[in-house]
Amino acid sequence: MPADVVASARAFRDRLADPNQLAAYKAMLPPGARGDGVVNIHHVNAASNMPFAAAASYDVVEDGGQLGRGSVLSFDPNAQPVTPVW
Fold this sequence. Notes:
- The chain has helices spanning about 5-15, 20-25; strands at about 35-45, 55-60, 70-75, 80.
- The chain is of the alpha+beta class.
- It has 2 helices and 4 strands.
- The mean pLDDT is about 85.
- Helix content is about 30%, strand content about 25%.
- A hairpin with a 5-residue loop joins strand 3 (about 70-75) and strand 4.
- It has a 4-stranded antiparallel sheet with strand order 1-2-3-4.
- The longest helix has 15 residues, at about 5-15.
């Protein structure tokens, strides 16, 4: 794992450990994605034909409504949605 990816993930996690920073971050997310989340590092499967890539994201389960089914949504440190290719 590249050291810069780990450092980035730790900084993101530490930022969101502050309740005020977490509240401000969640306020930028879509309404259905403001539940509890976690900072993860995602990477491309080494068995794939894609070059290695890794990135930190904030992952949260989208509110699934009445059926209770939600999907995992991922956001970058600027609260922009990321489409996982991992």
